[in-house]
Amino acid sequence: MIQLRRVGPEEFAGVLDTVLDIYTQAMRPPSDQLTGRMAIMRNHATYPDFVCLLAEAPQIVGFVYGFHGTPGQWWHDVVRRALQDQAGPRVSEEWFGDALEIAEIHVHPDYQGKGLGRRMIHEICAGRPERTAVLSTHDAPTAARHLYRDVGFVDLMTAFVFPGGYENYIIAGTRLPLTPRPEDVLRTS
Prior knowledge:
single chain; alpha+beta; Aminopeptidase; 7-stranded mixed sheet; 7 strands; about 25% strand; globular
């Protein structure tokens, strides 16, 4: 049985090599991006209200983390400004004025397709004080995008390209608390 365990910034920093390995196996990024990704993850752990869940079987097989988004954080500022330009300040404030930003969620390929990502999303959002949760994912018909839609995330922007990037992403959001479907309750019991 896979257990989800909350860890703080210090313990997260202690397992960054393992977390980066899972990220690498799940995402297959170019190897020259891994040092930068490690630095980004380490920096994220310093953000307000950082929360991380490790999925353990008993080794770490997945992780999710996020934090309260605030001005001065790169992703928050870039995405909020783009949504404001596209949909106006009211919509931007509605989604990003009080948001849990889910920065990373990855499951080792051997454990994908078994409901673990769904469990992690519900658990990271449970009890959060923010009114919304937001995230980005590739703008393609991936299993991750299907999962996010299935748990209640809606597309806020599509075909979004981050500054300096070239890939299309979607920015998605959902209202908190998440409303679990009956089958979600059974999966987490």
